[in-house]
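Section 5: illustrative case.
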């Protein structure tokens, strides 16, 4: 009993044990990683939207979030019935066009194309792309499972959002239980998780959306084919810090060269460089705060390790998770 009381009073040791237990629990439930992360992202964005509206109008969360989810469902229906089939057709056509160009005599004798292909090999981007395409193909061939995951995450986030005040009161009631120290520590880490992981991931999504819109505008001006398909690719790659820009530049360069030769490819480089500069010097300082900036070497190491541990999801959430641990250790802190 004395050992137990001493353990409870030793807050640093106690919190280390609780954190390790939480990590072990998450690792055991890693098969549900997609559902957990999607639910967290949807819920985080929904609750933030509710709090934003409640600053100006005193409305119940139910009446704030329900119309938003109805609109989202309507937009998904329109996408599924009208736009997605066209995007798939244009994507297939674009891939065929690129392969036809690559197989042609012109491309095989072109030193610039050879240089781009060699760059892919040197950066080992082909392995990353193959891994990503394999993961995408696995999801495409199992649409039922991924659809079920999205629907469940969407519903869970909706139920939590319109009962957010009740859920908060319910969670605080555990801090008055017989194991109050345990739930106080869990609440401590949960608060830090939301204030670091959630904020960084939300900023990452906003930056990816802005990058995608600007890139789509630039590609439209340059008369690229299948801009919606390329915009989807840019959005998902923009979720990968630093490396996403490099990976996306290779296919965009090759497509630009097939569209208008060297001049168009240079224009693509200039456009991507300008957008990346906007992200680095304007969006990141405004949305991420300078404390979340990491050296490029550290960023790539974190991405490599997280990709090995979490698969494709690791490329998206690796940096936010690393930032969370930095905050827990007191290395970096995010503005509260």
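Designed sequence:
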């Amino acid at each position: 009993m004395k050992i137990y009381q001493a353990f409870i009073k030793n807050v640093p040791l106690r919190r280390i044990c609780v954190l390790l237990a939480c990590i072990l629990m998450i690792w055991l439930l890693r098969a549900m990683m997609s559902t957990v992360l999607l639910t967290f992202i949807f819920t985080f964005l929904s609750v933030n939207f509710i709090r934003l509206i409640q600053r100006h109008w005193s409305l119940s969360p139910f009446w704030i979030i329900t119309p938003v989810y109805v609109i989202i469902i309507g937009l998904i229906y329109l996408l599924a019935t009208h736009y997605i089939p066209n995007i798939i057709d244009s994507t297939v056509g674009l891939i065929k066009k690129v392969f036809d160009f690559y197989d042609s005599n012109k491309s095989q004798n072109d030193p610039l194309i050879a240089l781009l292909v060699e760059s892919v090999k040197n950066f080992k981007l082909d392995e990353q792309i193959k891994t990503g395409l394999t993961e995408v193909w696995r999801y495409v061939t199992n649409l039922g499972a991924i659809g079920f995951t999205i629907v469940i995450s969407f519903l869970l986030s909706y139920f939590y959002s319109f009962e957010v005040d009740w859920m908060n009161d319910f969670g605080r009631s555990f801090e008055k239980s017989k194991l109050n120290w345990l739930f106080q520590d869990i609440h401590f880490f949960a608060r830090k998780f939301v204030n670091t992981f959630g904020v960084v991931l939300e900023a990452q999504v906003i930056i990816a959306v802005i990058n995608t819109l600007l890139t789509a505008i630039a590609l439209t001006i340059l008369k690229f084919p299948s801009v919606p398909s390329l915009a989807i690719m840019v959005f998902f790659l923009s979720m990968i810090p630093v490396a996403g820009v490099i990976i996306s530049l290779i296919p965009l360069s090759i497509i630009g060269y097939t569209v208008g030769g060297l001049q168009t490819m240079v224009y693509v480089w200039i456009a991507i460089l300008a957008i990346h500069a906007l992200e680095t010097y304007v969006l990141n300082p405004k949305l991420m705060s300078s404390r979340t900036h990491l050296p490029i070497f550290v960023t790539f190491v974190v991405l490599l390790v997280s990709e090995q541990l979490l698969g494709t999801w690791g490329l998206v959430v690796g940096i936010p998770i690393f930032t969370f641990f930095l905050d827990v250790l007191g290395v970096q802190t995010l503005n509260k």
